[in-house]
């Protein structure tokens, strides 16, 4: 059953989360007062800065660590992170852009068929966990890739993994299992 | 009739001279060790461990004078061989100010105090929903395993206890919904769900999926529906899941919708609100699931069902 070569599945990356360091202490108050498009969360100790061009939200800590979320691809994440570092530099901090790392990638994929979840869980016992009372999707973990897939009965699958490649291979790995437990369209 | 006393470390301590291999039977009332082969009384004046006086009272509430220790379970706690200082009777046990001397009768099994607390809590929770003793024992065992593993040490003990109770009910084949466990516990459903997943990972077990039939008898009895309606509802729900009319719906919602359909077709009608109340589902949820099974209603009913309201007159929501 050579299912993969017939169908081209579109894997849409919806979110890329990355971190980087600025290697210098940041004065959050100054950023909050002088920066554009910032929200200062004083109780937790961080500043949120939202960029428009790559639509990105960055969480900035005073230690100089920054978490960047909302990008739609790895390159975009890097552009956004650099742009952010540039804007911090313009505010007067001695920013050095180091330790850029993509931490999490969230992607969505749609199967052309519906899936029978109870059957799927029975066939994939240790990796799949299904609790209909808690969440309507089956949670399938692929340990070597460190990827988690949420499989819904409509056939749409949400994948989270450490990078885009892991996400793609996770979808490829799960396809045959999901294909087994599909619901045939009459 | 000579008896030979061998080494006290070797069991059995004495052997019958004629049958050295046979294991001696102990008659503790008379204090004898008897060889089962020939009936020879081999050892005598063995210490009697029976009760010292006869007790005739039937009620267990009064202290049983023949028992020396409490009937605690050495399997679960650390072994219950501790001594506590009692309350004290007579004048000598009180010091000058009227306080009792030797006040310190606490600190027994301090290492497992939290565990005993949890067992008490588990018994209380199980009592509220009338769970049988075997489920409570299983819950205690699960809790002990989780507690000893210490991987969930940061979580509230009550949350872990509630999750253990949920797992035990599942494992015994009589699952309770999370909402039912929530009702007898102070922990939120979210937290119980989280602990449940963590415990399954920690103990490396898995549980069977819940089916609609597991809850039918309980829900129908609570609603006061007759056996016919219950059987019809079970059949409807099972058929609906087989035909996959309700993909992605929780089995509880499907069961509730099936009960609604069956009750509406019989003489004992129940409203969606009543069923929702018992099952812990919102009545809009029942409405949604009912809409999905309504088109195939004639196929879902069992063949021998007596309709009070015919199938085409069933309410359409």
Walk me through the topology.
The complex is a heterodimer of chains A (186) and B (317).
Chain A: H1 3-6, E1 11-21, H2 28-34, E2 38-41, E3 46-51, E4 56-61, E5 65-71, H3 74-90, E6 98-110, E7 114-115, H4 117-123, E8 128-130, E9 138-142, E10 147-151, E11 156-161, H5 164-180, E12 182-183
Antiparallel strand pairs in A: 1-5, 1-6, 2-3, 3-4, 4-5, 6-11, 7-12, 8-9, 9-10, 10-11
Chain B: E1 4-5, E2 14-15, E3 25-27, E4 32-34, E5 41-43, H1 113-128, H2 133-149, H3 157-171, H4 178-184, H5 189-203, H6 213-223, H7 227-242, H8 251-265, H9 272-279, H10 283-293, H11 297-300
Antiparallel strand pairs in B: 1-2, 3-4, 4-5
Helix pairs in contact in B: 1-2, 1-3, 2-3, 3-5, 6-7, 6-8, 7-8, 8-9, 8-10, 9-10
Total helical segments of chain A: 5
Order of helices and strands of chain B: EEEEEHHHHHHHHHHH
Oligomer: heterodimer
Distance between the termini of chain A: 20 Å
* Low-pLDDT segments of chain A: 1-5
Strand ordering within the main sheet of chain B: 3-4-5
Using only C-alpha atoms, the radius of gyration of chain B works out to 30 Å
Number of domains of chain A: 2
The greatest interface between two protein chains, and residues involved on each side, is: A-B, 19 and 16 residues
Percent helix of chain A, as a range, is 25-40%
Query: Which fold name is given in CATH as the topology of the largest domain in chain A?
Result: TATA-Binding Protein
CATH-defined architecture of the domain at 212-313 in chain B: Orthogonal Bundle
Q: Within the CATH hierarchy, at the fold level, what is the topology of the domain at 212-313 in chain B? A: Cyclin A, domain 1
CATH class of the domain at 212-313 in chain B: Mainly Alpha
Mean pLDDT of chain A: 90
Secondary structure category of chain B? mainly alpha
DSSP summary, beta strand count of chain B = 5
DSSP strand tally of chain A? 12
Note the overall shape of chain A. Answer: elongated
């Amino acid at each position: 059953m050579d299912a993969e070569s017939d169908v081209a599945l579109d894997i849409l990356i919806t979110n890329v989360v990355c971190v980087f360091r600025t290697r210098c202490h940041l004065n959050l108050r100054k950023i909050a007062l002088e920066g554009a498009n910032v929200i200062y969360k004083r109780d937790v100790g961080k500043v949120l800065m939202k960029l428009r061009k790559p639509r990105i939200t960055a969480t900035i800590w005073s230690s100089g660590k920054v978490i960047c979320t909302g990008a739609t691809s790895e390159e975009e994440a890097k552009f956004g992170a650099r742009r952010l570092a540039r804007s911090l530099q313009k505010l007067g901090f001695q920013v050095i852009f180091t330790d850029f790392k993509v931490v999490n990638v969230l992607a969505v994929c749609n199967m052309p068929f519906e899936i029978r979840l109870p059957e799927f869980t029975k066939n994939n016992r240790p990796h799949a966990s299904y609790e209909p009372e808690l969440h309507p999707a089956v949670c399938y973990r692929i340990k070597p890739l460190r990827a988690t897939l949420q499989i819904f009965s409509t056939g749409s699958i949400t994948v989270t993994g450490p990078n885009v490649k892991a996400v793609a291979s996770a979808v490829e790995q799960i396809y045959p299992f999901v294909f087994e437990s599909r619901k045939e369209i009459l | 009739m000579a008896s030979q006393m061998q080494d006290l470390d070797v069991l059995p301590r004495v052997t019958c001279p004629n049958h050295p291999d046979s294991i001696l039977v102990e008659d503790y009332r008379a204090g004898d060790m008897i060889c089962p082969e020939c009936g020879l009384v081999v050892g005598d004046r063995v210490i009697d461990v029976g009760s010292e006086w006869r007790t005739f009272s039937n009620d267990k509430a009064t202290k049983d004078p023949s028992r020396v220790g409490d009937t605690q379970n050495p399997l679960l706690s650390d072994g219950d061989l501790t001594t506590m200082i009692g309350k004290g009777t007579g004048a000598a046990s009180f010091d000058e100010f009227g306080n009792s001397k030797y006040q310190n009768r606490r600190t027994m099994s301090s290492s497992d105090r939290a565990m005993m607390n949890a067992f008490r809590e588990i018994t209380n929770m199980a009592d509220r929903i009338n769970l049988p003793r075997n489920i409570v024992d299983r819950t205690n065992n699960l809790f002990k395993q989780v507690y000893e593993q210490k991987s969930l040490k940061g979580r509230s003990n009550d949350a872990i206890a509630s999750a253990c109770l949920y797992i035990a009910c599942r494992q015994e084949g009589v699952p309770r919904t999370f909402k039912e466990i929530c009702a007898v516990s102070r922990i939120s459903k979210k937290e119980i769900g989280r602990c449940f997943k963590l415990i399954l990972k920690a103990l490396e077990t898995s549980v069977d999926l819940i089916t609609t039939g597991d809850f039918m008898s309980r829900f129908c009895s609570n609603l006061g529906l007759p056996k016919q309606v219950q059987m019809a509802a079970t059949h409807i729900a099972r058929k609906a899941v087989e035909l996959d009319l309700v993909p992605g719906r929780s089995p509880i919602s499907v069961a509730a919708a099936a009960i609604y359909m069956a009750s509406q077709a019989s003489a004992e009608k129940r409203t969606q609100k009543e069923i929702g109340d018992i099952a812990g589902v919102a009545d809009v949820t029942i409405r949604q699931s009912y809409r999905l099974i309504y088109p195939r209603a004639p196929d879902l009913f069992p063949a021998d069902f007596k309709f009070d309201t015919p199938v085409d007159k069933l309410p359409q929501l």
